[in-house]
Specification:
Blueprint: E1 7-9, H1 18-23, H2 34-51, E2 57-61, H3 64-73, E3 81-84, H4 89-100, E4 104-107, H5 118-127, E5 133-137, E6 139-140, E7 145-146, H6 149-159, E8 164-168, E9 187-191, E10 202-207, H7 209-217, H8 227-234, H9 245-261, H10 263-283, E11 299-303, H11 310-319, E12 322-326, E13 335-339, H12 346-362, H13 371-383
Parallel strand pairs: 1-12, 3-4, 3-5, 5-8, 8-9
Antiparallel strand pairs: 2-10, 6-7, 9-10, 11-13, 12-13
Helix pairs in contact: 2-9, 3-4, 5-6, 10-12, 10-13, 12-13
Length: 396
């Protein structure tokens, strides 16, 4: 199989559609002028739909981790008690950020590969509900698990009504249904390089009214990430500091494509690609890491078999332009991950599975020619979801 570009199957940065890539090459504009204000307004309007909020979307020039840091320092003070529910490397990172800035962090740990349990949260808060914030990860990129944020937030709001609910939505928002307002979330963060089909460099964040009130009282140090300044500037169509204009062009173009596809179409496409990925990998003999009930629609993690020379296998995949991601943290060297988010379509997934099948056969592994691709196709048909082509057009 020959490809002019790699089949980039990592969970970010993701493939750029042609229209989005072209948008990033447009000439600069005055970031204090009316054209930039209109750009900000379009991004805000279109992105609110995917956040499920009526709150404004604040744009930060930073990767997703910068957004997580902004969420912490704008709502908390040193010494505040914070409950973190890490289910993988990125949930662990969220907790570490809070700790670095002086929060008193309690960790309610979950085995990697499983989802955070609302019942465990209920039991914990029933015994101790004196927290200023609860940190949740919607989609744990390192394990391919999507946590039940709505259920977790409901428990937190019931038993710890004074606690702010901060959600890392970096690797799922824009690819799966999400309802910030309806679920009672206070801060939600995402990043441009994931489902939004743009280059890295922008973090998008929304705050509830009570989170904005908390921002006035928070005493953690902040300057570049002071969201009060960002909100003040946004009121006049500007950012307080120089923005990543080219990345904003791309986010705007990506949102135009997503709007044309409709949110329902975007979500169905991601669900179809996820189902195909999981079925194909399992047919090739790979054991999936995630609890099937909470398997992610944006990234799938699988164990590396003990009898597989992963370096050789992965090297052959790279030679055929299929690029996968390795494990992180304590799963490094034990799993691999397949990203299926952003500008991904069924052909991309079938192509990747087909190459993996070809390489497996070439290395003498037990596999029936055509079986993995066939299983992937059948999984999509069984789900009733056929969305073979991702939005690829030019920006509106």
């Amino acid at each position: 199989m020959y490809r002019f570009e790699p089949n980039l199957r990592i969970p970010g940065p993701t493939h750029l559609p042609p229209g989005v890539r072209e948008a990033g090459g447009r000439q600069m504009i005055n970031h204090r002028g009316p054209e930039f204000a209109a750009l900000m307004a379009r991004i805000d309007r279109r992105m609110r739909v995917f956040f499920g909020t009526e709150q404004e979307i604040i744009l930060l020039t930073a990767a997703g981790t910068g957004g997580l840091e902004a969420a912490v320092v704008n709502t908390l003070s040193p010494g505040d008690r914070v409950l973190a529910m890490p289910t993988g490397a990125f949930g662990d990172r969220f907790a570490k950020i809070a700790g670095v800035y002086g929060a008193d962090v309690t960790r309610l740990e979950t085995e990697w590969g499983r989802a955070a349990d609302p019942a465990a949260l209920r039991a914990h808060l029933a015994a101790d509900a004196d927290y200023r914030a609860v940190l949740l990860t919607h989609n744990e990129t390192s394990t391919g698990v999507t946590n039940p944020v709505a259920a977790l937030a409901a428990v937190a709001r019931e038993l710890a009504p004074g606690a702010l609910i901060l959600v890392d939505g970096v690797s799922a928002l824009g690819a799966v249904p999400f309802e910030m307002d309806a679920w009672g979330l206070d801060v939600v963060i995402t990043g441009s390089q994931k489902a939004w089909m743009a280059a890295p460099g922008m973090s998008m964040i929304a705050l509830s009214e009570r989170a904005w009130a908390a921002a006035e009282e928070a005493r953690m140090p902040r300057f570049y990430f002071d969201l009060r300044e960002a909100r003040k500037s946004a009121a006049s169509g500007q950012t307080p500091w120089t923005p990543a204009v080219a990345v904003m062009y791309q986010v705007d173009a990506g949102l135009a494509l997503m709007e044309a596809e409709t949110p329902a179409g975007v979500f169905a496409r991601h669900a179809a690609c996820a189902a195909a990925t999981r079925a194909g990998l399992e047919t090739l003999g790979f054991r999936l890491l995630a609890d099937p009930a909470f398997a992610s629609n944006t990234v799938t993690a699988a164990w590396i078999p003990e009898d597989l020379d992963w370096k050789t296998f992965n090297g052959e995949l790279k030679a055929r332009q299929v690029i996968l991601a390795g494990g992180q943290g304590k799963l490094k060297g034990k799993i691999f991950r397949v990203g299926h988010l952003g500008a991904v379509n069924l052909d991309d997934i079938l192509g990747a599975i087909g190459v993996m099948e070809e390489v497996a056969l070439g290395l003498g592994r037990p596999a029936e020619p055509g079986s993995a691709v066939g299983a992937a196709q059948r999984a999509v048909l069984a789900a009733g979801e056929i969305h073979p082509v991702a939005a690829q057009g030019a920006p509106a």
